[in-house]
């Protein structure tokens, strides 16, 4: 069973080159990250260095980077790679969502020396960068809640504050930090600035947080105690940090949708195989109508998500702005994957509960994308306001 394609004549079907990329990553996952290996790393809460090195060697870490630093491919290739990884080692898909978002920020706003120092190493797999925006007092409403401040001094900037939920910070050499640099004006998103901060800078403390899922990548609290950086740490335009961060939301949302499609597909194939083999009352579980309908609904929702994501990606690659379609894709994909993994857990009974089998890991991991990068309630708010012309509800 392969639920990644329906019909080669589909106008949204992927090119032979992209199909080959999919097959290559799928083979890599099969050989390097079988379920038992992924579960062992999940239990040990360890990043998969060997898989990361393979992805670097394949050039995957450089997808959509500028050509002069070795970039290849575009957003549609990112979606394929993330989907294939999410169906297996989901944490590596989560890591790549951050990697691709950082590439987008640096290619869009980093100075030439910053690109030279960081972006070139990032795409070769020689350095890692994390993104610190969310704070203890708020992620969704981070503009209002932000307490981290950067104060200008003669030699550069001094940063103080605490960030929460920064992915991968224990392994990162660099942090992109969003800090308030001017008091907020009413109804303005300006007044915060992006900085490139070495994790090793004096005053930076990283503390790992124990989380439900995505155990193959750390989730961290990062504190800044009088951290000094030079003027050259500023990324892009002073006070425009939110605009720069929000510009990545469409693609980050689409990459999150791809991760959910990957989890949903992996879980659906697994559940359907299980339902075809496990017998109760003299027939396989899949012969009963209720579990069959759960799985059929999962297949429909997954396909709807895939169509939305393909359409939104095509618009983005053509230079358009697929904002609402991208958010719709993330919404539909995350809800599809949650439906599928919950159904999978139910129809597998006690085996769903076993940590030796992957269903529970998919079930845990995919929860992330119901509230990140933007929670599904806010996605609905935006659709209500911007598509349907309803009053702003928040
Ligand atoms: C594993 C993990 C990795 C992460 N990685 C990063 C990272 O690398 N960098 C980073 O900056 N952040 C990261 N985050 C943070 C993530 O982006 C936030 O968790 C997310 O934005 C939600 O913010 P919050 O957790 O503060 O929830 P809150 O903002 O407190 O929202 C909680 C809930 O309230 C409801 N809600 C909020 N606003 C509305 C509204 N307007 N209307 C209706 N309902 C609403 C929603 O149900 C929402 O889920 C990560 C989080 C996790 C758990």
From TrEMBL:
Its cofactor is FAD. Gene3D superfamilies: Acyl-CoA dehydrogenase/oxidase, N-terminal domain, Butyryl-CoA Dehydrogenase, subunit A, domain 2, Butyryl-CoA Dehydrogenase, subunit A, domain 3. Residues 130-227 form the Acyl-CoA oxidase/dehydrogenase middle domain. It comes from freshwater metagenome. Residues 240-388 form the Acyl-CoA dehydrogenase/oxidase C-terminal domain. Keywords: FAD, Flavoprotein, Oxidoreductase. This is Unannotated protein. The keyword Oxidoreductase applies. One of its GO terms (molecular function) is acyl-CoA dehydrogenase activity. InterPro entries: Acyl-CoA_DH_CS, Acyl-CoA_Oxase/DH_mid-dom, Acyl-CoA_Oxase/DH_mid-dom_sf, AcylCo_DH-like_C, AcylCo_DH/oxidase_C, AcylCoA_DH/ox_N, AcylCoA_DH/ox_N_sf, AcylCoA_DH/oxidase_NM_dom_sf. Belongs to the acyl-CoA dehydrogenase family. PROSITE patterns: ACYL_COA_DH_2. Residues 15-126 form the Acyl-CoA dehydrogenase/oxidase N-terminal domain. Signal peptide: none annotated.
């Amino acid at each position: 069973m392969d639920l990644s394609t329906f019909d080669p004549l589909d106008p949204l079907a992927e090119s032979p080159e992209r199909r080959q990329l999919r097959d290559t990553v799928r083979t890599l996952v099969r050989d390097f990250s079988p379920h038992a290996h992924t579960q062992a790393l999940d239990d040990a809460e360890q990043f998969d260095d060997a898989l990361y090195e393979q992805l670097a060697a394949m050039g995957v870490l450089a997808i959509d980077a500028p050509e002069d630093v070795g970039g290849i491919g575009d957003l549609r290739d990112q979606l394929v790679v993330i989907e294939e990884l999410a169906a297996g080692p989901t944490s590596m898909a989560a890591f790549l969502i951050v990697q691709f978002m950082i590439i987008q920020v640096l290619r869009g706003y980093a100075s030439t020396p910053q690109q030279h120092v960081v972006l070139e190493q990032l795409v070769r797999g020689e350095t890692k960068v994390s993104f610190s925006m969310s704070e203890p007092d708020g992620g969704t409403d981070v503009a209002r809640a932000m307490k981290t401040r950067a104060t200008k001094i003669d030699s550069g900037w001094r940063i103080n504050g605490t960030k929460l939920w920064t992915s991968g910070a224990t392994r990162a050499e660099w942090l992109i930090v969003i800090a308030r640099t001017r008091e907020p004006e009413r109804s303005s998103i300006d007044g915060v600035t992006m900085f490139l901060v070495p994790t090793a800078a004096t005053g930076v403390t990283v503390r790992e947080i124990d989380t439900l899922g995505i155990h193959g990548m750390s989730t961290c609290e990062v504190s800044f105690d009088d951290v000094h950086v030079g003027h050259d740490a500023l990324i892009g335009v002073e006070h425009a940090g939110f605009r720069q961060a929000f510009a990545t939301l469409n693609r980050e949302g689409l990459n999150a949708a791809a991760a959910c499609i990957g989890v949903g597909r992996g879980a659906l194939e697994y559940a359907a195989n299980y339902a075809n083999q496990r017998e109760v009352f003299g027939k396989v579980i899949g012969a009963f109508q209720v579990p069959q309908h759960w799985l059929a609904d999962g297949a429909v929702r997954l396909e709807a998500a895939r169509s939305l994501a393909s359409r939104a990606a095509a618009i983005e690659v053509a230079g358009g702005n697929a904002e609402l379609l991208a958010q719709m894709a993330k919404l539909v994909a995350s809800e599809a994957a949650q439906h599928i993994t919950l159904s999978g857990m139910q129809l597998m009974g006690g085996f769903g509960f076993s940590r030796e089998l992957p269903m529970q890991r998919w079930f845990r991991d995919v929860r992330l994308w119901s509230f990140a990068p933007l929670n599904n309630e806010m996605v609905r708010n935006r659709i209500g306001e911007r598509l349907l012309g309803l009053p702003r509800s928040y």
